[in-house]
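Annex B.
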Amino acid sequence: MNTSDDSDVEEANLVQLCRAALKLIPPDDPRHADIVDDLADALWTQFHELGRISDLEEAIQLYRELIKMRPLDHPDRPKNLHDLGITLHDRFEQLGRMPDLEEAIMFHREAMNSRPLGHPDHAYGLSTIASALQVRFEQLGRMSDLEEAVVLHREALKLRPSGHPERSSSLDDLTSALWIQFEQLGTMSSLEESIVLYREYLNLIPSNHHDRSSTLSDLAHVLMTLFEQLGRMSDLEEAIVLDREALNLRPAGHPDRSSSLNNLATTLQIQFKQLGRMSDLEEAILLLREGLLLNPIGHPVYSMSLGNLASALQTQFGQLGRISDLEEALQLQRESLSLTSLDNPTRSNNLNNLSNTLQTIFEQLGRMSHLEEAIVLSREALRLRPPGHCKRLSGLVNLAAALQIRFDELEERQLEEISDLEEANRLLREALLLAVGHSAYSMTLNNLANVVRTQHKYTGKMSDLEEAILLHREALSLRPSGHPHRLSSLNNLAITFQMLISGTKISNEAWENFELASNYIYAPATARLRCTLNWTQKAHQYKHESSRHAYRKSLLLLEQCLIIFPTPELQHNFYQNFQNISDLAIDAVSWAIEIGELKEAVEVWEQGRGILWSKMRDYRYPIEQLRNQNASLAEQFDAITQQLNQLMTTKNAGSQWNDIVKEIQDIPGFETFLRIPSFSSIIRVASEGPVILVNISHHRSDALILYNVNLDPINVPLSDTSKSKLYHIVDILAKDLKSGYNANMDKTIEEILIHLWKSIAYPILQKLDELDFPKGSRIWWCLSGKLCVLPIHAAQPFGTSTISQQELSQKYIHSYTPTLSSLIRAREGVVVRERGTVPKILAMATSSLDKVYEEIEAVQTVGHNTVQKLIGSEVTHSTMMDSLTKYPWIHFASHGHLNSEQPFNSSFELHDNARFTILDLLKANLPNAELAVLSACYTAAVDEDNTPDESISLAAGMQFCGFRGIVGTLWAMADQDGPFLAKEFYKRILHLENTDRPVDFRDAAKVLRAVTKEMRKQDIPLYRWVPFVHIGA
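TPR-like protein: predicted structure tokens.
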């Protein structure tokens, strides 16, 4: 058996022998041409063995001489023409000189013409010229070359029937050409035929053949593309199986392992987009990082590997919101572009990728420099795709998109630059001509329609609006039911019809298309929610009767969206970052109030208010219970729900989800699963005293008082407040609190309390007074939006009003509740203690603050043997969790930390700076818990900047995990107040001097009021007593 070195020697010897023979045989000898042929063949083989370009150059020269020697009818002339074409093609691949490729094609054509149909080498000649034409297409982008290549490959395959030794080769060639044809023209027939041929080709390849892994990869790639077109999950699943098999055939050290790593990563990313499983995305990133290590700098595919990893990191950024992922993606894209030469045919792709990343960063950070650079890069990419280039269409669309983003941004800044819009219009019209018959045609119609619609706002021409409607209608007609982008067309058509205003009325077709979009079950809930939000905004603005249905639909879709995300953090990120969603619930309530449907307003309030907390309780627990009764149905629900989160899904996923929800609702005990809460179930909240819902929206401001389980709510319009005034007050308070205590803080708080009194508290309490609620009655506040951060319980007129107002401000005992349902649950199943019995109390302290241990001693002094202490190093994560399950009353003295970016990571500080977060609280289930006194900073606080219409606080977390009542703080408490609070609070609530009354956690609100009243008598500043609040029963 010869080694490679042996074969090199043999080839060198053959070259020497041929050279020696030529010296012995004169040119006029008939054998001379045959020796020249042998020498040229030997030199070509030696080139492939040693890579010396001089061998290839000499072989080409010899083949040229041979052509001159051979008359037209010489039997070896076709072979020599073919050989010259092959060597010229090889030199093109080495040096990239287009004349070599052009000449190669010419000689291949002449060789084929010399081997007519019936000649044994005719099929080989067809394949050779077809392959050369494909290469020229890749260089110049001329579709005629690709079309001819497909025709020639088909002819070659026909000449190689089943059983022919070269049939597999023709199958490989034709599938490759058909795939490229699909990429260029989007013709489904090309894609489907290539899959049939790939399957046949794969069946012809033995399991141990060196080409099997590459064929597996190719078939996986076209199946993945078929999935993208039709949305069949079976195609994607098969693609992943094939990619895994290919990777297994390419173990560590295999030269093509990096390619398989990249391929599998790509299919896993697509599966992630369908099912939302982070494990798929995480595996894809690991595979891409391994692939990058296998392709060091200088490797031919290093630049591509950089780009692929950048793309995956951008996707991860979209899920987790980590700016570091986006920054790494940008760095990788820049490096990828820097390694791509100016004449590299992939340079335009890299330019577009970097442009897209910069646009994403612009959307996050708002820096115009990023957008400007993106436009420059898109222009350069388009310049590299001149008319006739196969990728000019995408270049036109990408640049137009970037220009429209810049136009929209400048419009917001009132710096309209109409030239961007006009250029985008021109680019998209050119793109539309190129897209005829292409799968991107409907997308291009859609984009052009949007630009023309925007242009109408500036030209005022009805012709622009009419054209936009025609373009959107045509796009919609190309997207039948089941099409992944039909929803986008319905939404865009509705938005365009909004602009057809007759007097104060919008065309009915706008509302009709919005409703169709909201009910389009083949689209993900997130996309449908965006459409219904557009619907609610316009319907409310024009006071259209469909507003009611639009708001209800939006809230139901919001619930469906939240179910999709498996963790509280992801749910909060979605809720926080989803555009125009933070005011959805309060706007829906304001509409219901506006039309006089107060019961419905309460239902909508509870449906939308505290939606993260309610979904974790009302969805999570029933699903866990459902698993115990019908595990298969629960798994089906989860699987279909994940599919619905993505743009491309199986065509019947939406209807399957609806069917499964209905099936769950038919199970006894699950009748209310994912249903709108009914007023009859909510009004129970008023059984122990009035509950006041305060709703401040940009449409109107109101309070709804629930005061009798048998009567309708009462509406109290709050005409002296507005959303803008409220936000201004919040900003003032936040600024003072962040700067720390100063001489002006009490003055600021006093002014805020006076404003809250005049604009909110006074008209509400006045109404309660009219309803004859006696002094000392308990009332509960349930607040919306940023009002959650304001101390409305302490609102009072100070010296600005009458004595009657002063008395009214002190008449009632105030508590808060995050949601109505949470207050109802807190009151259920309360066990009244026997007189003389005291609950077990756990008092914990971990802080380095001076007064903390004195505070714990105060608790123990009052509570005596009922109090168990945990101090310093005893307070760990495990002891905290264990203690919560054992003690019905908890007193926690430590630092509280508010996390603005991730509120579910707000925490109590434990020993050694360890943290016990809201997420930790959510893992606990405490059926015997009653009262938590959180003597720490910010325990009842929510972030004024990043929190949507939610109360995500440590206190709310305690209530969620089972505590019925909580004492907390809205902002930092003074260290010296801890011991006083502990002593006075427990002395009163345990009423040890009066054992005739049972100890009841429900006295906590009354006791807290008495303690803060005592603080006021001692002239303690406002900023120290105002933040103490009671939450729950």
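Residues 274 and 706 are 44 Å apart (CA to CA). The first strand starts at residue 501 and ends at 502. Further annotation is deferred to the next reporting cycle.
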